[in-house]
Design a protein that fits this description.
Shape: globular
Strand content: 5-15%
Number of strands: 4
Radius of gyration: 16 Å
Largest sheet: 4 strands, mixed
Number of domains: 2
């Protein structure tokens, strides 16, 4: 992967284009950039999850992208018509893209009622990851 000032595991077009914040990597340049510092100095915690996402995840991502910093994502949804790839296409991401994440929310609450019964098999056939670690987190 080319060297970027910051990157995430996945980008997203839901609401507005942004880099998803569950896994981010920042270079020293990004970490010491004024936009980064300003965000954390003015950081607010919102009780409403949607407001938190809009202001912190999307707002911060967009401010960083509008700066002079370079950015990218490990997996890009550009050109795809998916709303929530991490949920709707969790299995394809793991099997075909070797994507190393699955949402805990998907396995625990499954808010979109997506078929997930095969998750242990999908993970075991695509990696040597110990699914007991995941199962312990779900209990």
């Amino acid at each position: 992967m080319q060297k970027y000032d910051f990157w995430s595991m996945m980008d997203n077009y839901e609401i507005e284009y942004h880099l998803q914040s569950y896994f981010m990597v920042y270079s020293k340049k990004a970490f010491t950039h004024a936009v980064f510092k300003d965000f954390w100095e003015d950081f607010k915690i919102y009780e409403d999850k949607q407001t938190l996402i809009e202001h912190n995840e999307i707002g911060f991502s967009q401010r960083m992208m509008q700066s002079d910093l370079t950015y990218s994502s490990y997996y890009s949804v550009q050109g795809k018509n998916y709303v929530n790839v991490l949920q709707y296409h969790w299995d394809t991401l793991i099997e075909e893209e070797q994507f190393p994440f699955i949402k805990k929310e998907l396995l625990k609450r499954n808010p979109l009622h997506i078929p997930i019964d095969t998750w242990p098999t999908v993970i075991q056939s695509s990696s040597d990851y110990d699914i007991n670690i995941i199962q312990n987190q779900l209990n």
